[in-house]
Structure formats: C-alpha cells, structure tokens
Amino acid sequence: MDSIQNRINAFVKLGDFLSQFSNDKLEKKDNIDHNELFFDGFKHQLKIAQENNSWFTRDNLLFALESWSKTLTKNNLNTWITKENISITKPKKVAIIMAGNIPLVGFHDFISVLITGHSVLVKQSSNDKSLLPFLAKYLEYAEESFKGNITFTEEKLTNFDAVIATGSNNTARYFEYYFKNKPNIIRKSRNSVAVITGNETEEDLQKLSDDVFQYFGLGCRSVSKLYVPKGYDFNNFFNGMYVKKDLINNAKYANNYDYNKAVYLMSEFDLLENGFLMIKEDESYASPIATIFYEYYDNLDDLKIKLYEDRDKIQCVVSKGFIENEIAFGETQNPQLWDYADGVNTLEFLSSI
After folding, report:
1. Whole-prediction pTM value?
2. Which of 42, 97, 108, 142 is in Cβ range 3.0-4.6 Å of 10 for a Cys bridge?
3. How distant, in Å, are the alpha carbons of 197, 204, 296 from that of 226?
4. What angle do CA 216, 238, 57 make, to 5 degrees?
5. What domain of life (predicted)?
6. Per-residue DSSP letters for 240-308?
C-alpha cells in the first residue's frame, strides 16, 4: 500500500500545483513543489491550448483546472481507493485513446491507470494536446516511479495489454473491431438530460444553465435535452438561462447559433429562441451547439421507464427528487473520482486485467 500512497501523494501535489490556476486569479504560490520548473511553462501551455482550439477559452480551461485541483485532495483520493480492492500483481501497459471535446477530458482514465500501478500509453486527440504531456512531466518529478511508465504517441498503437478508448458511436464500432482481442472499455457518445417538473425555483434553473452551457455544451455531462410536462411555461426556463447571455459574444458560438437557426428556419421547424439559445421539440438526445431539444412527458413513471430503457445513451439525469442517482441542478460538471463515465468502474477493470 506504500507505493499507492506515494502515487496518491504525487496526485495531491499536482492538485496543489493546479490550485494556482483558477478563474478568480492565476497566482504563483510559494509552497508548491517544482513550481520554478513548471509554473511559467504551464501558463504557456494554456496559451497554446487556447490558440489551437477556439472552444478552449480561458474560462473553460481554468474551470477544468480548478475542478481538478479541488478533486485531487488526499481525502478524495484515499476515499476513491478504499472503495476498490486494488491488487495488481503484474503491472500491464494500458493504452488510452482520448477524446478532445473538453479540456483534459481523458484525465480520469489517465490517473486511474497510474494509481493502480500500471503504465500508460496515451493517444491524444488533436483538439487537446497541450496540457496533459506537461502535467505528466510534473507527475514524473513528483513521483520517481512514474518515470518510464508514461508514454505519448501519435502513431498506431502497438505493444499494449489493454485499452480504454473514447469516441463517437461511429469510431466506437472500429474500436470494438480493432480491440476485440484485448481487455477493453469502449465508450460511445452519450448525452445528459434534465427532467423539469415545473416546481423548480429560479435558482434551480439558473444552476441548470451551468449544466447546459459549461464547455459550450460539448461535454457528455452537458445537458442537451429537457423533459417537460405538457403545458410547461418555457419563459421560466429562458429566465434561468439568461445569466449566460454573454456567451453569444464568443464568435465561434455565435456562428453556430446563426448557422443552426438558419437551418431550422429554412426547414420550417418550430422553435423558441432568446437571442443566444434555441429550443426545439425533438426525440434525439444529441442537440447541436446553441440548441436544446425537449420532449413532453405525460407522467413521471413512464418517463422513468423510458430513461431506463435508453440508459446506454444517457450520461447524467439532472432532476430534483425524481430518480435514484440523479444529479443536482448545476452539478453535472463537478463529478467525484468515483463517478465513473458510462457507469463502468475503471479501477475494477484495471484491477482485473
């Protein structure tokens, strides 16, 4: 267990390092290990990340870093580990194919592999290439045993024992074929939904705006679909969303809004909009940027059945007293270490290979 504690200590140090980067301020602190080597360099990597991907705004990058700094505490990491029976007799090399929809989206898989004592082979998305190699270098300084056990590649994956791959429904079919002979976790596209009853407070709906708009709605934990009772007054919903009105000042978001609005209008779809968000009645879960789909429900019991039947398409259900394992309004982008993507326990998988 000592070696696991050493790895935990390294992640705690990384959390402390990341605590210097938040939306409140970027502040170089005195008591952070290896700061002289890494602080200025990481600031530069943030700049590069913004330049390479215009969805990675400063606010979104710093939100991701602040979230991870709050997550990587000794208490959280020990709680996470003690929930599992980790006993690795022979370390393996685990390949991770990462998505690039939001900053550091594959980081949970990355630390899961390392904390269990395996080595990691990372194939990053071209949309998110700047931050993780730098943080990996920090970890090698924080914990000697990580050196030689973290590899990044842009080539075809070779010489690995297991794989965790995340992609679209289309790429997942290829992953399932290519990796059928290896222990694997293959993640497909998922979306999150919110169940509205009409009893929500103004504060609830303002918090829901975080679930809808954080990372421009590009995350699998982002709410892209509403279920509302028949006769629901959408003015209440729009009033809650209004706190995010300044999003339309982002050129890329505005372009998507204008484009999707034009498509809907030319197709003569019925839609409601408020100048920066459109809502459209649609049975699909995945809505385009600047759009939320909605569907009416007759009763909550039938809706529970529907959501259960579609559970393989849904990452989070945001609601208030509606269903077991629901996510509170405003909390989809604040998962705990033990809130596993797709409900697949990554540490359990890594302990079994």
Report:
1. 0.95
2. 142
3. 10, 14, 8
4. 20
5. Bacteria
6. HHGGGGGGGGSHHHHHHHHHHHHHHHHTT--EEE-SS-EEEE-S-S-PPTTEEEEEEES-HHHHHHHHH
